[in-house]
Amino acid sequence: MIKKKFFLEEVVDYTFRKYKDFKNLKVIFPNRRAGLYFQKALSKKIKKPVWSPSVFTMEDFVQNYSDIKISNDVTDSIQLNHILYQTISMHNGSGFTDSFEDFFYWGQVMIKDFDDIELELVDESKIFKAVKNQKEIDKSFDFLDKENFDRIKSFWKKFFPKMTINQKNFKETWEIILDIFIKYRGCLIDKKIAYKGLVYKEFLSMINSGKFKDKSDFLFVGFNVLSKSEKKILKYFIDKKSSMAFWDFDKYYFEDFNQESGDSFREFSNDKILKSTFPEVKPNNFIDNDKKFSSIGISSNIGQSKVIGNILSKLIKNKRFDEDKVLILLPDENLLLPVLNSIPTQINNINVTMGLSLQETSISSLIKLLYRIDKRKYKRDFKYCHYFKDVIELLTHPYIYQFDESITTEIITDIKEKKKIDIRNEELSGYSIFLENIFDLQSNLILKLKKITEYIFNKSKNLSVLDKEYIKSFLDIIYKIDGINIKLNSYENEFKLLNQILRMIRIPFSGEPLKGLQIMGVFESRNLDFDDVFILNMNEGNFPKSSFNVSFIPFNIRKAFNLDTSDNHDKIYSYLFYRVIQRARNITFIHNTSSSIKSNGEVSRYIRQIESESKFKIKNYFISDKLIPEERKKIIIEKDKNTIEKLKTRFFSNGYISPTGVKDYLECPLRFYYKYIANIRETYPISSDILKSDFGKISHKVLEDIYSDIIKNKANPVLDKNDFFKIKASIKGMINRTLKSHFNLRKNNELYLEGNNIILYEIMNNYISHIIKIDEKYSPFKIIDLEGDKKSGYHKTLHLNKNYKINISGIIDRIDFKNDTFRIIDYKTGGDIKNIKSIESLFSNKKKDRNDAVFQLFFYSILLKNKFKESTRIIPGLMNIRDLNKSNFSINISINNQIVEDVNPYIDEFESLLITKLSEIFDIDKPFTENDDINSCTYCAYKNLHSG
Ligand code: SF4
């Protein structure tokens, strides 16, 4: 089968046939991208040097003949909005007190209405009169969300304080609007900048008055739905300048009156001037036998991007694969990043062309973080401080973090290690010039953002192309706000305005234009053809996009005056859909089968239409994205001599193994390897709350300090009933003192606790008070050691298999003595159980069978016995938070429900099992492997090292 030509190749052929000399030829397209592709197609055909025709978009073409600049970017929009704001302020005088940031939203809506009115050449006095007569005005605002409805409502109230929006006083408002429209129009003409409709209308006046003198040839290519003014312009050139139009359409929808995509062409072909531009033989590309359709449903957006990645990976293996002929059409821009991340690296060039909302980008989150940290700053000791969580969030923002990773890591580590809560602003700004700008308290938000983003744009090394584009567009906005001197009196007002702008305005994004795989928005695909077309988000609500006109002019009036309505949107979407596939060979629709805000998981009506109306069969596939993970090979770390040397150094020559070390090994030998041999530190998320681990540390320290403060002043370290009066009075003070030192607060700084921490403080107070009460009852008793450790003599060397030796030690919360009995007390802030099945069960590698708290007590008993070298009775005991307030509370542990009155009879068995386990660690033939018990992995700090 002979390959059909692409539309722009046909235009090139036509151009060669029709025009002898391109020097005086002006070719006008609906968008820039189509013009660029036309030039590319033309250059392929040119064999010898010739003049190239001039190529324009319709806007650029009209702009050529007007000294009024058409607003065509974000920054122009801000200026137009500000001029409207000033016009209304002047009109209403002191009665108008709205700020520009509050005005911005509905200013945009009003300008769009004015633009529509002029583009459709509607008599403004008539349409405003019609709106004035509309009774149920509230109904026309049904589409607005509450926030914007309230904003508009409050604006109208500034004109008419006593009116409600659905009152008949609304009529008067529209009289004002006409006045404002006329003044605003005049203002724009004076300032030589305007929305498109105004400039088109001026252009029409010029050509109608015979002032248009350009003698060039004009060719209009690829237009579809036209506004009234565009149609008049086109007709003028065809009628009066013998110009031509070349339409991009297909017989398939042109001749089928049920297809709304053909509506405009049928209308134009019946127009007495335009009909001469329609070919006798209608293009017939859609019904091409070679076309293949597939439709793939998957239940997530990320799944859609993975699907496209997989298909491309297969396609590129084919030698005939040409990435220049592949289009990925994205009706929903939110899929852009996942899609970009899924494209196989073998694709050499990717080009993105679509309108993007800055609100979804990192720029928007940066603004929010800067605003929030400023709003929440507070004073400590007369110095501005920031809450550590805010600082960390700001510093870990991708733009800030990657700017100077070493500094940001240093600050975050410092905060974490020293447990800083209030971070002084001056400390942060002292780190670097970049951070000085971020934490500059004198600067307003816009100036600060300007400095920061300029810095990032010019000096950041790791910015992606997309991020550079976002930042550049954002900087243009900032320069414009700066340039037109908008008065924003507070940080908050600046934030509100930026938010409004980011919410409403989309930036046109366009990369390296003509090379490689193309990713496009629906509108950008006009006039372009590709062999392989992938359309994602083929769901109702996405394609066609559910649309509503945000307008002050109610739907019925818009319809009556032929203004743009959602009906038009449906026509345009339908046309763009058929157009992009009319010459393609392989068409793949990918849709989401699950519901979302925009769609209920229903496939696009266009897929149904192809299925039911065309001769094509669509191959349907459904993919479950609940992927069953491929079984991952277990990680096995073999031991060698070096490992054994490391073990010897770590646990014998230079140190010891603690109960935690043994527990780590029992839990998972691989974890033990990561922690003690590979020396990878455990990292846990930073939290503003008193964490579980903090809670334990602080309460242990409080108990240690309370008792050591008492006994240090006594000749004999015995606590009797009299001491407890003083002890009880010191609890709160001691908690405060310990909290301050734990969180590195200065002595004279006050302790501020918020939210959860207040509750935890009370729980801690309660827990400690209970222990003291129980101790008081048990008194008098002698304190032998508090937090006793290796230095205090609690250690022992054990002899393992193959003559290896290991030291064991640990920190024992408390050892006391009474009635010829030692008690080893361990404070526990969890709900530890005190009964075990057997000594052997303490060495199980199944978490649920072990009891680490009891294990610890037996372990300490060995140390105690070794220190005192005698067989005095030893009672191991737990003071665990959950049991303390039980009336029958006792510290005793039990084996098979038999209370352990003395640990001595059990110690040998425990020690022998311990030696066996420790010998296993030193066994060169026994590799470090993952534990089979997945319960061990739940809170493991190393799980990211091998998640899979
Ligand atoms: S995640 Fe599981 S297997 Fe991996 S080291 Fe931790 S406990 Fe062991």
Broad CATH class of the largest domain: Alpha Beta
Main sheet strand line-up: 13-9-14-8-15-16-7-17
Low-confidence stretches: 135-140, 158-170
Structural domain count: 5
What is the helix content? 40-55%
CATH architecture annotation of the largest domain: Alpha-Beta Complex
H/I helix tally: 34
Share of residues in strands = 5-15%
Distance between the termini: 48 Å
What are the SSEs and their pairings?
Blueprint lengths: L6 H12 L6 E5 L2 H14 L8 E4 H6 L5 E2 L3 H19 L7 H20 L4 H9 L13 H14 L10 H22 L1 E2 L1 H13 L8 E5 L6 H13 L3 E3 L4 H4 L8 H7 L22 E7 L2 H15 L10 E4 L6 H7 L7 E8 L4 H14 L2 E3 L2 E5 H8 L2 H6 L1 H13 L4 E3 H5 L3 H6 L6 H15 L5 H19 L7 H14 L1 E5 L6 E4 L11 E4 L19 H6 L5 H17 L3 E7 L12 H9 L4 E6 L12 E2 L3 H13 L5 H9 L1 H9 L14 H20 L6 E2 L1 H22 L13 H23 L2 E8 L6 E5 L5 E5 L2 E7 L2 E8 L6 E2 L15 H17 L4 E8 L13 E2 L2 E2 L4 H19 L5 E2 L19
Note the main attributes of this structure.
alpha/beta, 948 residues, 8-stranded mixed sheet, binds iron/sulfur cluster, elongated, Rossmann fold, 5 domains, 5-stranded mixed sheet, 29 strands
